[in-house]
Specification:
Radius of gyration: 24 Å
Distance between the termini: 32 Å
Number of strands: 27
Strand content: 25-35%
Number of domains: 3
CATH class of the largest domain: Alpha Beta
Structural class: alpha/beta
Shape: globular
Helix content: 25-40%
């Protein structure tokens, strides 16, 4: 299963009922050799019974003895992915080499990349006859098609890494101190020409302003191309997330960021084509987060079609069916590894409520409402005051969201993490002592006090799928945080 319910029983309409996404595909499953068949009455996919020979419809016959666990149907498909690596010319050369090496190690031989450097213009790299060539563009409309800038994986190691530092010779004498990363994205979108790709942006200079309408147009262009964008730079997370939210990409700070960030965002960019959630007609869907889609209601069934689901949540109301002792839901997830089916059950009597999932449902809904207002340019503090119910206040007490409203950029970053993180969001403070640094973990931020100039945080950074923001602080700032918050090791 990829969805975890907060209750095993049908709750009254005053209680919160729903599920959250805990991973992209089931961690364990069985392979079912038969093709997927559909119920002739409601068109829901049929699911294996416990004898693993027969199948039945979980919507029309909810009291049948269905098998536990998840099943995989259909063959795997290995798509050819393409990644745009877009970086600021202010990126240190050693970091550029480290990131490209990590990119080489994170993709398959079937994958390809394009490299774009942002100075006062966009510099596209290509490989021709074993040489690295650069083209410079001042206007997105003149950018050549993608085939001119496709770099095979093997060329990254044999041609790109040995030669890429020559691009720094194109650094203008008067480099604009304010960077426009969105120009690089526009140029790359033009080159991709609606082919599904993933865009990785890494920036170090101050970022230009971005109008709400421009962010909307850019984000929708990425989404319509069935692509995804991840943006990293100085802590201007409201601007970044205003673009990435349409494709559910990540945002992160680039200061002191380990190269393993590349592996994270490559994984987060793999296609997980769709999720379909089938429910009986007595179910009414009330709210979804972390996904886009639609509801299709028919005589016997309600179907929720979800695309690009990342850390999503689903809320619904369910009327108790007096004719059956079970209420069944069918989850269908299609990824490049096939289609996975799982049946979820609400019982008539036995009840087991998962409070952690209930809190996650509350916080994801809160994050969605507040962020939508922030992206629309509304007053952030006023929105928080309006949305901060007693339930939310209780849920965030003692967490790093407790003082929300004091730092716009960090608050947006933290809420975006809550919105798109898989499963339970751990928002508690923790203190971690490392040989070369001390770290306060305040998800998704790491406050680092250096003991040595060169410190390693990969051990902690790699424990989470979501890319954390590394904030190096002074001894006094670190001490103040330890005194202010109850921090456990």
């Amino acid at each position: 299963m990829t969805l975890l319910f907060n209750s095993t029983k049908v709750l009254d309409n005053k209680s919160l009922l729903g599920c959250v996404q805990i991973n992209l595909e089931p961690e364990s499953y069985l392979f079912f050799s038969q093709a997927i068949k559909k119920c002739p009455k409601c068109k829901c996919p049929l699911f294996p019974l416990k004898n693993e020979k027969d199948t039945d419809c979980p919507i029309c016959h909810p009291d049948s003895d269905f098998s536990n666990g998840s099943y995989q149907f259909g063959p795997k498909s290995i798509p050819r992915n393409h990644f745009f690596f877009i970086f600021d010319i202010e990126m240190p050369q050693n970091k550029l080499i480290a990131y490209l090496t990590e990119l080489y190690n994170s993709i398959t031989d079937d994958d390809t990349i394009s490299i774009v450097c942002m100075a006062n213009n966009a510099i596209f790299a290509s490989v021709k006859n074993g040489l690295l060539i650069f083209d410079i563009y001042d206007n997105p409309n003149f950018v050549e098609m993608l085939k001119q800038y496709v770099i095979e994986r093997e060329w990254i190691q044999s041609v790109v890494i040995p030669s890429i530092t020559s691009i720094y010779a194109l650094r203008p004498a008067e480099l604009n101190p304010v960077c426009d990363p969105f120009f690089g994205l526009r140029c790359s979108l033009k080159a991709a020409s609606k082919r599904p790709v993933a865009f990785f942006l890494f920036f170090y200079r101050k970022i230009c302003d971005l109008q709400v309408s421009d962010a909307e147009a850019l984000g929708e262009a990425v989404s319509e191309a069935k692509s995804i964008v991840h943006i990293g730079g100085p802590p201007e997370f409201r601007r970044y997330s205003a673009v990435t939210r349409y494709s559910f990409g990540s945002v992160f700070g680039t200061a002191d960021l380990p190269a393993s960030i590349v592996r994270k965002i490559v994984f987060m960019s793999r296609p997980s084509d769709r999720t379909r959630f089938y429910a009986p007609r007595c179910v009414t869907f009330t709210k979804t987060t972390g996904c886009s889609g639609s509801v299709n209601t028919k005589e016997f069934i309600t179907k929720l079609k979800l695309n690009s689901m990342v850390g999503g949540s689903i809320r619904f109301q369910c009327e108790e069916n007096k004719n059956h002792i079970h209420t069944r839901f069918l989850e269908s997830v299609r990824t490049r590894n096939g289609t996975f089916l799982t049946v979820h059950t609400l019982h008539k009597n036995a009840a087991n409520v998962n409070e952690n999932i209930t809190i996650s449902l509350l916080l994801k809904g809160f994050a969605s409402d507040v962020l939508r207002a922030a992206w629309d340019g509304e007053d952030f503090k006023r929105t928080i005051k309006e949305k901060l119910t007693d339930e939310i206040k209780q849920a965030i007490t003692g967490t790093c969201l407790a003082d929300i409203g004091n730092n716009l950029q960090i608050d947006v970053f933290r809420l975006y993490y809550v919105l798109l993180n898989f499963g339970k969001c751990n928002l508690l403070y923790h203190l971690k002592e490392m040989p070369d640094c001390s770290i306060i973990i305040a998800p998704p931020v790491l406050y680092v006090l250096k003991k040595l100039d060169n410190f390693q945080i990969d051990e902690i950074f790699n424990q989470n799928l979501w890319p954390f923001y590394i904030n190096v602080v002074t001894p006094d700032e670190f001490k103040d945080m330890c005194n202010k918050y109850i921090i456990s090791d």
